[in-house]
Design goal:
The protein has helices at residues 3-15, 20-25, 37-44, 69-79, 102-108, 111-128, 189-205, 207-212, 229-239, 245-251, 257-262; strands at residues 17-19, 48-54, 61-67, 94-95, 133-140, 152-154, 157-159, 163-169, 177-184, 219-224, 252-256, 269-270. It has 282 residues and is of the alpha/beta class.
Amino acid sequence: MTPKQSEFLLWLAKTGFLTNKHLKQLGLSKLSSSNHKITKDLLLNGFIGRIMVASGFGIGRKVVYFLAKKGADFIADMHGIPLEEIAYNSVKGGIHRNETGEEMAVIRTNFSHKEAYITAFIAFYQYIQCTDYVITNYKHYYQRTGDKGTTLRLNHKNFRPDGIWFMESIDQTAPKYVLVVEVHRHSDRKHIIRQLLQQVEALKQRSVQNRFGFEHPYLVLSVFCDENIKVMQGVLEELKQMPQWEYLENYFFFSRLEDLKADFCNGLGYFGRIEKPFPKKI
């Protein structure tokens, strides 16, 4: 196994899914074709699986890779990572063309949202590696087994943000950070506002602290894509007129996905009156 193949498997273990777009973001491949040397042997040996999903707006299709149980076992043995911490899929490895079923539906459903979320996570992960912080834990909304998911309690009901990411500094006196992530790919202004106000209530009721057992405040990252910039501008103007704006300006980041990819920290839009509460590059 080559170093690039090993790195590819480790990233799949973190995210669960990757597309060719993510391979390019990671610097693993500059090719658009899915049949290249990084993935070919891994597919043939059943370490990973490959399926096609609908692209955004229903135009065309794209390749999605996922980690199979065989690949997860290999990573667990080679890197000493507990199997329950690895994001693998129960579907067998190899190329899947037109198969249907519940597991395939879970992968394909609303995959453009998953792709945008994973893009943001990769940008975050790469940025934190340039700071004196380390990522101590992360949860993704599409991983629902065991303790992997993002489920929180609010007003005696469950809800799931897209991600929850944890950071700690090597300097024990530095602040710890937790980031709750929501990715908005749709253009329903009222729905986005409801989502963000729900996060305000979760902040007030300490939903994340109650699940994970920490005391310090956490932050919320609202990510939007190019296709709904105008909608988000309207959302922000409306939120600024609400009494909840005190929480939104101090505990929320509002960011365009492409800006996070370019420079994660600089891409965090922050309205608070203090210095941006996020790790800096060293």
